[in-house]
Design a protein that fits this description.
The chain has seven helices and six strands; from the N terminus they run H-E-H-E-H-E-H-E-H-E-H-E-H. With 177 residues, it is of the alpha/beta class. It has a single domain, classed as HAD superfamily/HAD-like (Rossmann fold, 3-Layer(aba) Sandwich), CATH 3.40.50.1000. Helix 2 links the parallel strand 1 and strand 2. The radius of gyration is 16 Å and the shape is globular.
Length: 177
């Protein structure tokens, strides 16, 4: 029984590494992911540092939100040096498809982090889908990775650190070849 658990964990890590190494773009939902979902919105400083670190590794980051009153989201994006920030997006699946065409990338190169049912279309399309541990059940059932932290409380930092780790490992492997 113990061997079976270890084997499953090893296979999961391998799948995670394969998906994470391909990522060129991380798309983040805002309310419930970058924030705790409460108003007024509060952003986590640690998440911000993780995003800046991720961008330095060469992975682009984008915000996408269904919120219409979102001046604070645009200010946060600007503060972090994120050029792509879309708000008032009701159909995130359609927006995701349009972004693939606009950016000229494949869905397996995109990580998407969302927490609610309006994120499910984009989650299904993403090469690597993530949810904070406090996401709704429907989302938790569909994602590749569930963070140990809640949205607005370090969940974004956790996924940024993970992507940085795998991105650095894949660079080192490519150098050795």
């Amino acid at each position: 029984m113990r061997f079976l658990r270890l084997k499953k964990r090893f296979c999961y890590r391998g799948m995670l590494r394969k998906r994470a190494c391909l990522i060129a773009l991380l798309i983040l939902d805002c309310d419930g992911v970058l924030t705790d979902g409460m108003l007024p919105r509060r952003f986590n400083i640690y998440d911000g540092l993780g995003i800046k670190r991720l961008v330095k590794t060469g992975i682009n980051v984008m915000f996408i939100s269904g919120s219409v009153n979102a001046e604070d989201i645009h200010l946060r994006a600007k503060d972090l040096g994120i050029k792509s920030c879309y708000t008032g997006i009701q159909n995130k699946e359609e927006a995701f498809k349009n972004l693939l065409i606009e950016k000229g990338i494949q869905s397996n190169q995109v990580a998407y982090m969302g927490d609610d049912i309006n994120d499910l279309g984009a989650i299904r399309l993403a090469g690597f889908s993530v949810a904070p541990k406090n996401a709704v059940k429907e989302v938790l059932k569909k994602v590749h990775y569930i963070t140990k932290r809640e949205g607005g409380h370090g969940a974004v930092r956790e996924i940024c650190d993970l992507l940085c780790q795998y991105h650095d490992q894949s660079k080192n492997i490519k150098k050795d070849i």
